[in-house]
């Protein structure tokens, strides 16, 4: 599936590269999920369900988020990818935007290899997203 997606995007995918690329892709998505869980933790603690579940996602590599667009205008590096994920929190759907940036390995990096920075946050397209971002921004959660 990943190979086919890369081919559709014209990224010159080679079958031999998939053994290297797919584990990196999966690790980055796992990191994104961990960050979503941190956003969700205050809202599902004490609820009868087992926590949030991924409902759906869309890769939108050619469409910049508003924050990424503003940062790019201000001179920052543009993200190399974007995903929009919808999470089901016990019946409440929360939309997230994830901007993927190439990072730099620091001098204390444990292992050589790719470095990524993820900007994971609830979208501001619903009252729930606005509330979550506000509460976190002022330290209420």
From TrEMBL:
<dbReference type="GO" id="GO:0005743">
    <property type="term" value="C:mitochondrial inner membrane"/>
</dbReference>
<keyword id="KW-0496">Mitochondrion</keyword>
<comment type="function">
    <text>Lyase that catalyzes the covalent linking of the heme group to the cytochrome C apoprotein to produce the mature functional cytochrome.</text>
</comment>
<keyword id="KW-0479">Metal-binding</keyword>
<dbReference type="GO" id="GO:0004408">
    <property type="term" value="F:holocytochrome-c synthase activity"/>
</dbReference>
<keyword id="KW-0472">Membrane</keyword>
<keyword id="KW-0408">Iron</keyword>
<comment type="similarity">
    <text>Belongs to the cytochrome c-type heme lyase family.</text>
</comment>
<dbReference type="GO" id="GO:0046872">
    <property type="term" value="F:metal ion binding"/>
</dbReference>
<dbReference type="Pfam" id="PF01265">
    <property type="entry name" value="Cyto_heme_lyase"/>
</dbReference>
<keyword id="KW-0456">Lyase</keyword>
<keyword id="KW-0349">Heme</keyword>
<protein>
    <recommendedName>
        <fullName>Holocytochrome c-type synthase</fullName>
        <ecNumber>4.4.1.17</ecNumber>
    </recommendedName>
</protein>
<keyword id="KW-0999">Mitochondrion inner membrane</keyword>
<dbReference type="InterPro" id="IPR000511">
    <property type="entry name" value="Holocyt_c/c1_synthase"/>
</dbReference>
């Amino acid at each position: 599936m990943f190979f086919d997606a890369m081919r559709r995007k014209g990224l010159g995918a080679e079958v031999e590269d998939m053994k290297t690329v797919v584990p990196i892709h999966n690790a980055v998505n796992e990191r994104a999920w961990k960050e979503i869980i941190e956003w969700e933790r205050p809202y599902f603690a004490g609820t009868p369900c087992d926590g949030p579940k991924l409902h759906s996602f869309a890769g939108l590599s050619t469409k910049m988020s508003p924050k990424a667009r503003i940062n790019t205008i201000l001179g920052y590096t543009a993200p190399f990818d974007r995903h929009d994920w919808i999470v089901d929190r016990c019946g409440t759907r929360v939309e997230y935007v994830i901007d993927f940036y190439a990072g730099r390995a620091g001098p204390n990096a444990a292992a050589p290899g790719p470095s990524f920075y993820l900007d994971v946050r609830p979208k501001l397209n619903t009252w729930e997203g606005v509330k979550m971002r506000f509460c976190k921004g002022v330290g209420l959660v």
